[in-house]
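Protein: TraR/DksA C4-type zinc finger protein
Species: Halomonas gemina
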Amino acid sequence: MADRKQELEVLRDELIDRFERYKAHKEQRGGPLDKDMEDQSIELQNDDVIEALQQEAEDELRQVMHALKRIDEGEGDLCEQCGEPIDARRLAAVPYTTLCRDCAELR
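Structure follows.
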């Protein structure tokens, strides 16, 4: 479980860094739009993509933080819904999962 915790901590740090880069990009883009209509359209599309990527990073970070908390509480390899052990292969594939495969499929 120590390896998984370390993997999650690295992932957490990467997600925080990614989130901050998206935020910085959005803050730089706060100026007036380019005068050319085509360029304006591209800028707005880029902003929408950055917003979606930032939201995705934030959602994944929330899941990683929750999984780290469960590891610290000694429950990191148990399904939070049914209490059964989560298969090691599932944890290897999705290290921040908190549900066994059966419970995840029911959601």
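Remarks: The chain has a mean pLDDT of 87.
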